[in-house]
């Protein structure tokens, strides 16, 4: 599975951190942003790709965003993107509850060893690779069918194409979750009736 690691940190020196070089060696595709809004724009414009975000918590006073608001906006854009918080500051329990509520994948101190950092990145990769949503996304992206022809009708009577469904799954919307659940149920039913092989 191809994945792009998106690193958002306002300290340009972080671009020379051993962790980022190791990510690039192992996963190839790395994008580094010192401006939080540019990183967020990149994420929103690339929801059709597999992304893992490494996010600093505290930015300079000139930035209108901080780690809290950026994590919330990333989660609102796509609930399946793993976001690893990577910071040199200590957060209080109250502030950490916000990160938990917005589904941060994990927390890394900038003082963590390279091994600890890569272990966290590898876990995020495996979680993304093995998620049901990602499996469905890969199936849609690789399908030879016309991706703009409606193929699914929701319980509310709305029609969706493969491209529409991909967007709904990425956004973690009610329709996306409904489609995931029904496709999963259908697959299990077909396997139980020996109509399909894995």
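Sequence proposed for the structure above (198 residues):
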């Amino acid at each position: 599975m191809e994945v792009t690691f998106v690193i958002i940190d306002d300290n340009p020196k972080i671009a020379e951190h051993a962790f980022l070089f190791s990510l690039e060696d192992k996963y190839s595709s790395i994008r580094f942003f010192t401006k939080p809004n540019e990183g967020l724009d990149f994420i929103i414009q690339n929801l059709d790709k597999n992304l893992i975000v490494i996010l600093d918590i505290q930015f300079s006073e000139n930035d209108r965003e901080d780690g809290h608001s950026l994590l919330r906006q990333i989660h609102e854009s796509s609930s399946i993107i793993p976001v690893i918080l990577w910071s040199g500051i200590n957060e209080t329990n109250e502030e950490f509850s916000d990160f938990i509520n917005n589904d941060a994948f994990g927390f890394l101190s900038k003082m963590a060893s390279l091994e600890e950092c890569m272990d966290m990145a590898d876990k995020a990769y495996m979680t993304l690779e093995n998620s049901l949503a990602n499996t469905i996304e890969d199936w849609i992206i690789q399908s030879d069918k016309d991706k703009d022809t409606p193929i699914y009708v929701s319980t509310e009577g709305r029609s969706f194409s493969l491209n529409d469904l991909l967007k709904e799954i990425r956004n973690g919307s009610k329709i996306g979750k409904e489609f995931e659940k029904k496709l999963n149920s259908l697959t299990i039913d077909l396997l139980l009736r020996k109509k399909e092989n894995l």
